[in-house]
Every structure is written in C-alpha cells, then in structure tokens.
Specification:
Blueprint (H helix, E strand, L loop, with lengths): L2 E9 L5 H18 L3 E8 L4 E8 L2 H10 L4 H7 L2 E10 L5
Antiparallel strand pairs: 1-3, 1-4, 2-3
Helix pairs in contact: 1-3
C-alpha cells in the first residue's frame, strides 16, 4: 500500500525561495540515490512563508527504511536548515481515482 508523508514547514527566510527549492531538489536526488521506492513528490505553497511537501512512497516499510538514515544525509541537513516549524504527518493511501 502506498504511503504519503506530508511535511508542513515555514521558510526561515521567505526571500530564500530559490535556495529552498534547490535544497529540496538536492534532497530528493540524494534520497532517490538510496532507494527507488520514492515514487513522486509535490510541493505546494500555502502562503508567502508556509509550504506543504508531499512525498509518495511504495510502502510504509520503504519509508521507514529511508527515515532511519535520511536525517544523516548532508542534503537533509542543508534543506532543513532553511526552514522552521517543520511538522510531519504520515498517511496510508486508501483510495485513488
């Protein structure tokens, strides 16, 4: 069953949009270099400061494996250095049409 991981965050500096996007892209590339179970990502902007980042995984087990090592990735540290108030939620995808 696919799993969605949603991260809501606030830009530490709203003027750093380009840096946030570049750091996110580098993090996605680093994660994909470790696994092929990340099937898609989507980033939405709520307002000038708040963002929602949704990553879709093939399974909960795959997500668990990556989240065990991802905090140690330099790309994760760089990406999260640009944000504050990050919260994470996990959802099992039940229906899709």
């Amino acid at each position: 069953m696919s799993v969605l991981r949603l991260t809501r965050f606030v830009a530490a500096d709203p003027q750093q949009v380009d840096e946030i996007l570049a750091a996110r892209a580098a993090l996605i590339a680093a994660v994909r270099a470790t696994t092929d179970s990340l099937t898609e990502t989507k980033l939405a902007r709520v307002d000038d400061e708040t963002w929602l980042d949704v990553w879709r995984w093939e399974s909960g087990e795959a997500l668990d494996q990556v989240t065990a090592v991802a905090p140690n990735l330099p790309e994760a540290k760089a990406a999260f250095a640009l944000v504050k108030d990050a919260t994470v939620e996990r959802y099992d995808l039940v229906d899709e049409r």
